[in-house]
Design a protein that fits this description.
It is built from 2 helices and 25 strands. By secondary structure, the protein is mainly β. The radius of gyration is 22 Å and the shape is globular.
């Protein structure tokens, strides 16, 4: 029983196209679900989230509070493994954050990034650090550009205190998160965790029909999701306010009937013209999604209307020139300033972000440049004076 064909994990299909999933003939059917509108909204720090919101930048399947309890044990190297079921890529960045940590004794916290084998265990140490256990803990780590990546998974290992000295130690970490890139995020359940918390799902059964496979189109799920809800701002303490607009993106989940974990994918509510690749992540549509046509210098002029904000949608996976060592770079010169604020977005992130600027308010922008960080200044950029 298996799913043998499905959208790639980093896909962003148009919700108005076919989204094919195929199983072998022995799989009874698919269990599917989409966003549930009735769950109670929860709040964490300055970021609001829903427990069932499957759109998440957190790639750890962790609870809001995680306990690492070796208080009654004698092992000096007690740890837990958090598996990210994706192969790491040389040169990419990860941002690890804990909102608040406590321990029953004075100790530091060892955190390590490993290549993981098919069973989800760390086998090749890539990087490690010791963090002071306090109210705000962060670790920004890059996979070495020379790393020989040969294992299928990525594993984050967290010790009950300091590696080599974990006997009798109990550590509690609250609001822990890990995301791709150099920007820290607040806690929200991962996509898989959120899918597992949904209370309603539907089974789709299909007769074997012709051949040895069963085919499904999940575009009806992608059309659903949140509507008319406030934008969320996942990044913490950034100089540029990237938001997730739920009118632009939705999430859907599916698994073979009887299987344990859901597969979660994102979909765009945008439409691709006939004849074009409907997967935005592989269609090389550009770093910025807009209905305007850039000039020969990749500049776009936007007419400003008094009292109305301007919106800019940026999409790191929209450029085929991006790789793990050349992220999308956004430069904003805010009204009343003379210097650019700069922020990068990892090309691993397949979510489009929205920037809003209002020249009548303090967050107005006089100049915006979006470009591939490692290409010449006139290459693949979006330019709004």
């Amino acid at each position: 029983m298996a799913i043998i064909n499905q959208p790639a994990e980093d896909s962003l299909f148009s919700a108005y196209s076919q989204i094919p999933v195929e199983t072998d003939d022995s799989t009874l059917g698919l269990e599917v679900e989409t966003q549930n509108f009735d769950e109670t909204q929860n709040f964490d720090e300055t970021q609001n989230f829903d427990e069932d919101n499957m759109i998440s930048l957190n790639i750890l399947d962790n609870e809001q509070s995680e306990v690492f309890d070796n208080s009654g044990g004698t092992s000096q190297n007690w740890f837990r493994e958090f598996v990210i079921p994706r192969k790491m890529i040389a040169g990419e960045w990860y941002a690890f954050r804990v909102g608040f940590g406590t321990a029953n004794v004075a100790t530091s916290l060892t955190v390590a990034l490993y290549q993981g084998n098919a069973e989800g265990h760390g086998v090749v140490k890539v990087a490690t650090t010791d963090l002071h256990i306090t109210s705000y803990m962060t670790w920004l780590v890059q996979v070495p550009t020379t790393e020989n990546v040969r294992h299928p998974n990525t594993v984050l290992i967290i010790y009950a205190g300091k590696e080599g000295a974990t006997a009798g130690v109990k550590v509690t970490l609250n609001n822990m998160s890990l995301t791709y890139g150099k920007n820290f995020i607040g806690y929200s359940p991962s996509s898989v965790m959120a899918a597992g918390s949904l209370t309603e799902s539907v089974d789709i059964h299909r007769d074997s029909g012709f051949g040895t496979t069963k085919k499904y189109d999940l575009s009806f799920l992608a059309k659903a999701g949140f509507r008319d809800r406030p934008r969320t701002y996942p990044f913490i303490s950034t100089v540029i306010g990237f938001g997730i607009d739920y009118n632009l993106i939705s999430a859907y989940a599916y698994r073979g009937i009887g299987k344990q974990d859901f597969n979660v994918r994102y979909a765009s509510r945008g439409v691709r013209p006939r004849g074009y690749n409907v997967n935005f992540s592989t269609s090389n549509i550009g770093l910025v999604l807009t209905d305007r046509t850039p000039d020969s210098e990749r500049r776009i002029y936007v007419k400003k209307y008094f009292g109305y904000p301007n919106f800019l949608t940026v999409f790191a996976k929209g450029s085929s020139a991006l790789n793990m060592q050349s992220a999308m770079e956004v430069n904003v010169m805010y009204t009343g300033t003379t210097a650019f604020k700069t922020m990068e977005i990892s090309p691993r992130v397949n979510i489009p972000f929205v920037l809003e600027f209002d020249e009548e308010l303090a967050d107005g922008a006089d100049y915006v440049i979006v470009r591939n960080r490692n290409l010449p200044i006139n290459s693949d950029r979006w330019h709004r004076p």
